[in-house]
């Protein structure tokens, strides 16, 4: 798609999305399509199909617009990761492997644009302390849940193991979405096999 054409709004957005959600979804679509330079209040209005000035009424400054995008990103990624579907640890290691593999594969395929937007926001957060705090707080939801899971499965060092799992997933997603493996996205079974090997080493499964 050429740079002059904004990415369409995600089909997964609720039919009755609020105006704030429409603006935030448009901002995320623009970040994925055009990068940080393409994110302007006017462009968000156009992409969202809203009257000029609508975005400024909701988020007057660029910082406010970025924070709105981060909040929406966290909500949508929580649905991608399906934290409400993460299995009870008593179901065993296989259930955790299946859940994490599916979430990772979703980020690589159906939600590739959302993953690209996250990288744009992560880089911008390195230059904006206020955004950094919001971005990190959003990511803490998943880290805390994952930490609880590996603890209950017998991890002797949950903090280190969570870091390793998140680093592996982030590395895989970056390589296959924006890096040198962008044309070689692994299948779900390959992702599951990788996770099984990693978690076996950590937990002795």
Write a short abstract of this structure.
This protein has 205 residues and is mostly helical. It has helices at 19-34, 41-48, 54-58, 62-81, 93-108, 112-125, 129-152, 158-177, 188-203.
How would you describe this structure to a colleague?
Helices cover 68% and strands 0% of the residues. The protein is built from nine helices and no strands. Helix 1 (19-34) packs across helix 4.
What is the topology?
Blueprint: H1 19-34, H2 41-48, H3 54-58, H4 62-81, H5 93-108, H6 112-125, H7 129-152, H8 158-177, H9 188-203
- Count of beta strands: 0
> If helices are DSSP runs of H or I spanning 4 or more residues, what is the number of helices?
9
Q: How do the helices and strands follow one another from N- to C-terminus?
A: HHHHHHHHH
Give me the Rg, rounded. Answer: 18 Å
Largest sheet: none
Q: What is the average of the pLDDT values?
A: 87
Label the overall shape.
Answer: elongated
Structural class assignment: mainly alpha
Measured between the Cα atoms of the first and last residue, the distance is 45 Å
Q: Determine the fraction of residues in helical runs and give it as a percent range.
A: 55-70%
- How much of the residues is beta strand, in percent? under 5%
Enumerate the spans where pLDDT stays under 50 for 5 or more consecutive residues: 1-16
């Amino acid at each position: 798609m050429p740079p002059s054409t904004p990415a369409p709004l995600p089909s997964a957005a609720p039919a009755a999305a609020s105006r704030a959600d429409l603006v935030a979804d448009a901002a995320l679509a623009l970040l994925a399509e055009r990068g940080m330079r393409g994110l302007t209040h006017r462009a968000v209005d156009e992409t969202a199909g809203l009257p000029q000035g609508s975005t400024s009424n909701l988020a007057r400054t660029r910082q406010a617009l970025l924070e709105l995008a981060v909040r929406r990103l966290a909500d949508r990624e929580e649905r991608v990761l399906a934290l409400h579907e993460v299995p009870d640890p008593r179901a065993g290691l296989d259930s955790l492997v299946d859940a994490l593999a599916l979430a990772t594969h979703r980020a690589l395929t159906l939600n590739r644009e959302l993953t690209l937007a996250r990288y744009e926001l992560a880089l911008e957060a390195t230059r904006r302390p206020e955004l950094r705090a919001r971005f990190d707080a959003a990511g803490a939801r998943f880290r805390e849940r994952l930490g609880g899971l590996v603890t209950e499965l017998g991890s002797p060092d949950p903090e280190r193991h969570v870091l390793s799992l998140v680093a592996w997933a982030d590395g895989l997603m970056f390589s296959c979405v924006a890096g040198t493996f962008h044309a070689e996205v692994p299948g779900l079974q390959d992702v599951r096999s990788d996770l099984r090997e990693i978690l076996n080493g950590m937990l002795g499964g």
